[in-house]
Amino acid sequence: MKRSEVNRNELSPMMKQYMEIKDKYEEEILFFRLGDFYELFFEDGILASRELELTLTGKNAGLKERVPMCGVPFHSAKPYLEKLVNKGYKVAICEQLEDPKTTKGMVKRGVVQVVSKGTLVDLDFLKEYDNNYIGSILDFKTKYILTYADVSTGHFYVCALPPKKDKLLSEVLNLNLKAVVLADNTDVELVDTLKNSYGISVYINSEYLEDEYQNIYKDIKDIHFLTGIKHLLYYLVIKELKDLSHIKEVEIVEKNEYLIMDIHTIRNLELFETLRLKERTYSLIWLLDKTKTAMGSRRLKHWMQYPLKEKEKIEKRYDMIEVLNNEFILKEELRKDLFEVYDMERLCAKVICGMLNARDVIQIKNSLKVLPSIIEKVAKLKFNLKIKDHHELYELLDKAIVEDPPISIKEGSLIKEGYNKELDELRGIRSGGKEFISSLEASEKERTGIKNLKVGYNRVFGYYIEVSKGNLKDIDESWGWERRQTLTSCERFITPLLKEKEALVLNAEEKIIELEYSLFLEIKDILKKELFNLKSTAEEISKLDAIISLSVASEELNLVRPELTSSHDVKIKDGRHPVVERVSKTEYIANDCIMDESIDTLLITGPNMSGKSTYMRQLAIIIIMAQMGSFVPAKSAVLPVFDNIFTRIGASDDLVSGESTFMVEMLEACNAIVNATPQSLILFDELGRGTATYDGMSIAEAILEYINKNIKCKTLFSTHYHELTSLDQKFTNIKNVHVSALEENGTITFLHKIKNGAVDKSYGIHVAKLAGMPQDLLKRANEILKYYESENKEPSVKQEQIIFDLGEEEDDKINILKEELDEMDPLNMTPMEAINALYNLKQKAKDLN
Ligand code: ADP
């Protein structure tokens, strides 16, 4: 039965209430609280029963037919909720807003929050080293406005992007937005790409929140930014009922203050995850992240996502690393302190979102406990970080909350003794009553002479005296016992005195629970007032943790402080790719990268697998590390500050639609050429290989010419087109380098060493051999090669013919003999030469046996 088919007049009052609430939450799955359960009806019930593997039953709703229903117990609803949210559904949680015990008639109900992937706050659902962003995209034709927020940390940003879909998508993917709110006039193709190609939840909303939370954007004047902010706020506050009072301000992200990298570059350089497995392990952040707190880890990631361009700011980070590198003991002690600090940013969000429990408060307290020690050490280091000690708050929390409180805040046992007089008194009454009850058993046994009498308690009947059936005859009426419960083997009684004490204990118990709850809420209010101060401290701690992490990495990975130059020189001595170095089983070969003012392009040739793209990536990674404020993997490094890194390396994924590989390659190259400035870095790996040889070569050459004539930015260009290597004669700013390889008896060894000049051999067939291609196939390739080379009178580069040592060695030696014989020209040999040659051949033939 569908919800839309129901005759509402026939419904029971409760079901009418359900319908009214559900009407407002059409898109969401409604969890409707009924006593100890959340119940889901109609289509929601059917869907949830399928997704959560719950039994679908029915509920009598006043109609002839029962309505489809499934339910989950309220105290164990979390895993079900998580499952639905992770599958991309939004869940509206509808609670009872009045206490059923004190309400006559039906209790009021209302949705208290909407939970979706983009706005999770619960720490259990979130990755500690990642932000969880929800964004809004507005298309103003001349630009896109992207607004995004992490409700779990209270960060809120807005930025303007050029009106290009691929740039927008690149940013959305880079930020890893979980959900996006779009206005209803948004281009359908964009909606489709976000939803279907990238699995991002898309919500449509065209309303704007006008008169709440103005304090967070009071300094922003730009009308487009304001519209974006109000658009996201409307969704969060009105649609998802979020309390955002932990958000201090909206930050404008000025893209031109940072080194810009698009999503291809970020992915190709494996900054945050590996290309193939999409895992953090073996990414650059994995290598550099030595932080001790979740906040520090997110901060470091942010630094890598947004490398700086301002020399002074970058050098400040270098200075701090240098100080830390000289203060080993202090640094280690600080790391121990930081280890004690919990995720204060997300704990602050929990204070606001009504999800805080006493265990969270203990985490806040324990975090505050180490602050004095951190402050003292930071002062010794003379770092300019404003960390408050929050002493009063710490004292209060320490006095108030027990060390190991329960998860629930509604069942007492939260507040320490000595914190509140009334609570202590009530607890005295309760324990007095309990003591009396426990001594009652002994005294009643004595008084009645019934030896197996027991005093007990259960939730339904309360306290009782239990007497076995056999002893019932011994009960004297004058004792005034009243029967409470009959069981098969015994009877349970209550006495007037026991009843009196029971009332005292239960009364005290109830009051204790109520009082503890209200005391907890008071503490929560105090935390709320301190929230922005706590958040500032959390922020400073995150910076400290991130910088210490960079210092630790600099020592563990043998990094060096780069020198930033205002000239256009790149001078890297013995540079390394830190991740390949760490992962590689063989020794990593360090390489220089020298491009002074006069050289803009290095044209790199060399066999496949020799290390060309590693060399290119290495340069980009060194630059990114340098500009995020880190030391770099080299013996020494002089670098200018770059504004953009463009890459076209390896297979790339197409962001917008199903373009061909070559088209994507050209789009990316075009993007680089159009947007690069003299301060940019371009990495092109075998550009043009996606089309026919002459096409590809011509395009590659024209691009190189264009860059070196018009842009003059630092460029690494690897190529198989050896024809291009003569470009250095035409352009003085192009220099040839190659990756050397050693060839001996048909086997090739990659030396991974970058040397000056172009390579004069290519080793394609050798690499095919290394890959284990069948011998016959390789022989055939050799033959074909010979044919082509004889056709082409002047090959620009000689493909080294392969000498086989595969399979039977004999075969190979015979081949060598044959080749030598082939090359001999008896008519042009002196008799002496002929005899020597014959002698040599005989010697070689001997080896065959
Ligand atoms: P190419 O781009 O020339 O095909 P790659 O850069 O992909 O080659 O390198 C191939 C492999 O060689 C890499 O996976 C890496 O393990 C190894 N390698 C590359 N450069 C070095 C180096 N400098 N030192 C040691 N090993 C290296």
Largest beta sheet, briefly? 7 strands, mixed
By DSSP, the count of extended strands is 29
Bound molecules: adenosine-5'-diphosphate
Structural class: alpha/beta
- Helix share, percent: 40-55%
Based on CA atoms alone, the radius of gyration comes out at 37 Å
The overall average pLDDT, rounded, is 88
- Strand order of the main beta sheet, please? 13-23-24-25-21-26-27
Low-pLDDT runs of 5+ residues are: none
Number of helix segments?
27
Which term fits the overall shape? elongated
Proportion of residues in β-strands: 15-25%
How far the N terminus sits from the C terminus, by CA atoms, comes to 88 Å
Task: Give a verbal description of the structure.
The chain has 849 residues and is of the alpha/beta class. It is 43% helix and 18% strand. It has 27 helices and 29 strands. The protein has a seven-stranded mixed sheet, sandwiched between helices. Strands 3-4-2-1-5-6 form a six-stranded mixed sheet, sandwiched between helices. Strands 11-10-7-8-9-12 form a six-stranded mixed sheet, sandwiched between helices. The longest helix is centred in the middle third of the chain and has 34 residues, at 496-529. The structure holds adenosine-5'-diphosphate. Adenosine-5'-diphosphate is lined by residues 580, 584, 588-589, 591, 606, 608-614, 752. Adenosine-5'-diphosphate (ADP) binds at residues 580, 584, 588-589, 591, 606, 608-614, 752.
